[in-house]
Inverse folding.
């Protein structure tokens, strides 16, 4: 009888931990400024950088279609 009680207690506690995981995780791992204070990327600069590094790669947008 005691074994069943211990087993059910472990199942209940582990289930509670899974349900409350986001709250527990936010308490244990505080958010730092490196992930919250990010700037929006400059996509034009990124595109120019990729064109400089990989000039032969055309991608889907620059493929010519045959007529």
């Amino acid at each position: 009888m005691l074994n069943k009680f211990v087993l059910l207690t472990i199942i209940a506690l582990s289930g509670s931990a899974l349900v409350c995981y986001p709250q527990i995780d936010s308490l244990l791992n505080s958010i730092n400024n490196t992930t919250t204070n990010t700037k929006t990327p400059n996509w034009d600069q990124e595109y120019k950088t990729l064109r400089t590094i990989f000039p032969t790669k055309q991608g889907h947008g620059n493929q010519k279609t045959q007529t």
